[in-house]
From TrEMBL:
Keywords: DNA-binding. This is HTH tetR-type domain-containing protein. Gene3D superfamilies: Tetracycline Repressor, domain 2. PANTHER family: ACREF/ENVCD OPERON REPRESSOR-RELATED, ACREF_ENVCD OPERON REPRESSOR-RELATED. Residues 2-62 form the HTH tetR-type domain. The keyword Transport does not apply. Residues 25-44 bind DNA. One of its GO terms (molecular function) is DNA binding. Transmembrane segments: none annotated. It comes from the Bacteria.
């Protein structure tokens, strides 16, 4: 059974998705949850605490993805493919949370929440950079980029692809397109075509 606090958080994420940050109000949440506003304050002190929990939900599977990779024997292109697939699958299955990355009003103007969002982003990029460094002889061959640059480009491509997917009505398979674009970043044309045939 879902706890009351978790139900409120789910409703808050739904409101963010449908109405933006301005729509995440205690009045709207009370209406959705069919409770009084004082009842909400027994679960969350204020709106900011709810927004903080939304940011935490945005990154709730990061540790699981990272630990699975660290415990695996994946290497080379496959370790990057795995990271991208798991990352994208999470947001494909919980589209509402993608709104967080495009809602600067949610975190940018609050010192603690901004710092937390920076921590999430930096940790993702740093983890990618470490993966690339460990596999640089394969992943950076013929690219002309170093590990830091490639990690930033992969992260930026994921961000851009999720944005485009959302803005165009999510009418195509995000995971396939994101994988296609990022693998092309990592491989020369001949290598890409060869590996892509194997993946199929």
């Amino acid at each position: 059974m879902i706890k009351r606090k978790d139900k409120i958080l789910i409703s808050a994420i739904d409101l963010l998705y449908s109405e933006g940050v301005s729509g995440v109000t205690t009045k709207n949440l009370a209406r959705l949850e069919k409770v009084t506003e004082p009842a909400l304050y027994r679960q969350y002190k204020n709106k900011q605490e709810i927004l903080n929990h939304i940011v935490e939900a945005y990154a709730q599977y990061d540790e699981k993805i990272i630990n699975t990779i660290l415990e695996s024997r994946l290497s080379g292109y496959e370790v990057i493919r795995y990271y991208i697939k798991r990352f994208i699958e999470f947001y494909e299955n919980y589209v509402e949370l993608t709104t967080v990355m495009f809602s600067m009003d949610l975190y940018y103007y609050h010192e603690t929440t901004k710092a937390r969002m920076e921590e999430i982003v930096n940790k993702r990029i740093s983890f990618l950079e470490n993966l690339i460094t460990l596999n640089k002889d394969i992943l950076l061959k013929n690219t002309g980029y170093n590990s830091e640059e490639m990690a930033s480009m992969i992260h930026g491509t994921l961000f851009a692809q999720i944005y485009e997917w959302r803005m165009t009505g999510m009418h195509y398979a995000l995971k396939e397109r994101a994988l296609d674009y990022i693998m092309k970043l990592l491989k020369s044309t001949n290598e890409y075509e060869h590996i892509n045939e194997i993946d199929k």
